[in-house]
Amino acid sequence: MGRALIIGCGGVASVAIHKCCQNSDAFEEIMIASRTKSKCDALKDKLSGGKTKVRTAQVDADNVAELVALISGFKPDVVLNLALPYQDLTIMDACLATKTHYVDTANYEPLDTAKFEYKWQWAYKERFEKAGITALLGSGFDPGVTGVFSAYAQKHQFDEINYIDILDANAGDHGYPFATNFNPEINIREVTARGSYWENGRWVETAPMEIKRVYNFPEIGPKDMYLLHHEELESLALNIKGIKRIRFFMTFGQSYLTHLKCLEDVGMTSIEPIEFDGRMIVPLQFLKAVLPDPASLGPRTKGKTNIGCIFTGKKDGKDKTYYLYNVCDHEASYREVGSQAISYTTGVPAMIGTMLVMNGTWRKPGVFNIEQFDPDPFMDGLNKWGLPWQESFTPELVD
Ligand code: NDP
User: Fold this and answer.
1) CA 13 / ligand 1 centre spacing (Å)
2) Whose CA is nearest to atom 46 of ligand 1?
3) Spatial distance between the Cα atoms of 279 and 273, rounded to a whole number of angstroms
4) DSSP state, residue 298
5) Is 82 helix (H, G, I), strand (E, B) or coil?
6) Would you give the DSSP letter of residue 395?
7) Could you tell me if residue 59 is inside a domain?
8) N or C: which end of the chain has fewer CB within 10 A?
């Protein structure tokens, strides 16, 4: 039994909060705190009647003093950060000041640089060790479950993993000509950035969307997928022994890419502030304001996601391949918690990671990526809480 403070009340938080309330044996009490308190109150009203006690609060997560006051008042066992990547460091500072465990789903990114790197959060390692508290970084799906899958493959299936391909397919159709499945600003920053992969101890950079493959996904069928940089590549390259190459591919439909290209060409995806009507605006933030809210896609999205990892390596001196993946249905997710599968596949692992830190199963002083913990209780949690995994020993490989 424990208490969790959840910061942010967007698409991912809504699922994580539903799941905490389903898991009331672990989550005795939660507080939902976000910039817009009315959203927290509206969610609380939907959830009232369950055993988990729910409180709400307003907080500016860019302000450490406000966060410290909130944490000191509520005294949670753990803080689950589901605001935006820009708030990671202020929330970690507040956790240090109050000696409270910390969990997030995305690595810190400065507002003015679209660059995913763990260096800022890893720099907190010694301070978390000294304070005797745990920071669990990246407890979503990717990063998150992909790291747990890698730790599980390393523990149970291989003596040495040499290659990992992470494949993220979304075959969902929301019926809009263009929309993003999670926060548009974060999503577009990710897909317009240069691609990269890790090979033989160094990063190989690519132009955005330069490398394309077609993969025949179980339960989805053939899809175009493109190589992107993704944050878990950095930590897996360090934490998986014998690794020679790690790549990340995500599927995109032609219509999405054509719209994105046009928006880029006219400057709408830029994060450089410009003057408009006497005030400074960031084009990408303005674009976010005119695009459909990802939360509104839930009732309209049909189809499935398939996210997983293909491992190639050695077991007992022999070559071996192994594919671990999860298939999630958009409509089933919506029926259960009122959100589409992208939020569902992130919110469920966020709840599981928070539970494992809160109940002490995954507690050690310092700052850790998810693959640095024992994967087994998390793998059990995925089956129990709505993201069952499947395995194949003869997967199609990506060339
Ligand atoms: P949303 O934009 O839907 O939600 C973000 C929430 O954070 C909103 O409620 C917003 O408040 C709140 N917020 C933003 N700034 C502040 C602030 N300064 N103080 C307090 N609250 C703030 O995003 P998502 O739910 O889609 O994403 C949440 C996180 O999950 C992101 O970090 C994203 O990168 C990550 N993610 C991780 C994935 C993974 O697999 N690992 C996949 C998808 C997302 P308001 O309502 O006022 O705007």
Assistant:
1) 7
2) 36
3) 10
4) G
5) coil
6) P
7) no
8) C
The first and second tokens of residue 312, run together, are: 């190639």
In a domain, 130, yes or no: no
Residue 79 CA, distance from chain mean position:
16
Quote the pLDDT of residue 114. 66
- Which residues make Cβ contacts (< 8 Å) with residue 17, sequence separation at least 6? 6, 9, 30, 32, 43, 47, 54, 347
In a domain, 123, yes or no: no
| Residue 164 within any structural domain of the chain | yes
Kindly compute the dihedral angle of the four CA atoms of residues 132, 363, 94, 109, in this order, to the nearest 10 degrees.
120
- Determine the angle formed by the axes of helices 341-358 and 145-156, rounding to 10 degrees: 60
- If one counts every other C-beta atom within 10 angstroms of the C-beta of residue 68, the result is 18
The pLDDT of 270-299, averaged and rounded, is 92
- Assess whether the C-beta atom of 398 lies below 6 angstroms from ligand 1: no
Share of the chain above pLDDT 90, in %: 89
Q: Please give the average per-residue pLDDT across 353-374, as a whole number.
A: 98
CA of residue 21 to ligand 1 center, whole Å: 20
Check whether 141 has a pLDDT greater than 90.
yes
Per DSSP, the three-state class of 354 is helix
Backbone dihedral region of 165: left (phi > 0), alpha (psi from -120 to 50 degrees) or beta?
beta
Q: Enter the pTM of the model.
A: 0.95
Domain residues for 269? 145-338
Q: Is 353 in the pocket of ligand 1 (CB under 6 A)?
A: no
Q: Specify the amino acid at residue 229.
A: H
Cβ contacts of residue 202 below 8 Å, gap of 6+? none
**CATH code of the domain containing 214:** 3.30.360.10
Residues 126-152 have a mean pLDDT of 98
**How many domains, in total, are found in the chain?**
1
Which tokens belong to 240?
């998986």
Distance (angstroms) between ligand 1 centre and the Cα of 160 equals: 36
Q: What are the residues facing 250 on neighbouring strands?
A: 168, 226
Instruction: Please classify residue 348 by burial: count the beta carbons closer than 10 Å to its beta carbon, then call 0-12 exposed, 13-18 middle and 19+ buried.
Output: buried
